[in-house]
Amino acid sequence: MRWPRIIFIAILVLIFGSLLHYVLPQRDVARITGTEIIRQDFSGLNRIFYAQGDSGNAQTDSRDLRLINTILASGDVMVYRNEDTGFGWPPYFKLDSADLHAEAANLTSTAAAPQWVAITHYGWRSRLLTTYPNAVNIRPVDGPDVTLIPWLSIAILLLLALVLFMAWRIWERFEDRVIDPVRDRAAVSWAKLRDRVSGRR
Question: Does the domain at residues 26-147 carry the CATH identifier 2.40.50?
């Protein structure tokens, strides 16, 4: 009985951890090399990683998608999408993708004269599924070695830890007051029934 419970809890932790890693804000230091708008096709596999189409418009299998092309401080290439989240999930309430696109275009720089920026984003980059993290904010920084402390993510994780701890304590009290007495009564009833059946034999 112990191993199935451990495996079940491990799967729940993995799913919940993956969800947090996807939706919590992350920041990369990068140099913007250009911006573009492409026509993106959506399939059943990658549709869940993109925001819904503009309200009032028909849901289609393709639409225009703003992209921000960058080179990370590590030298790796990273492409971000730039689309509104609206009031959906995750709750970033981003409604300024056009303004962010103009800001990104203005901060474009070359390797000879780099302008480093901190890009706040959520999501994953998958070349297999053709998905991009969604940029929600861009701000200039002094250089590629700047230290960025994720205060918002830390606060959210601490709040979640507090909620989980309180839920665990409530469950423990519920188990002590309700489940254990019912379990004990059931065990006593089962023992009496077994003794009664054994006595008849």
Answer: yes
Per DSSP, 179 falls in state: I
pLDDT tens track for 132-188: 999 999 999 999 999 999 999 999 999 999 999 999 899 888 888 888 888 878 888
Neighbours of 65 (CB within 10 A): 19
Predicted model pTM: 0.78
Q: Cα(first)–Cα(last) distance of the chain, in Å?
A: 32
Integer angstrom CA distances of residue 83 from 9, 74, 161, 198:
35, 25, 31, 72
Q: Cα 102 to the chain's mean position, in Å?
A: 26
User: Tokens standing for 94?
Assistant: 């981003």
Q: Which of 122, 139, 118, 119 is nearest to 131 (CA)?
A: 122
Q: Which residues of 87-99 are buried (b: 16+ CB within 10 A; e: fewer)?
A: eeebebebeebee
Task: Give residue limits of the domains in the chain.
Answer: 26-147, 149-193
Side-chain half-sphere CA neighbours of 12 within 13 A: 6
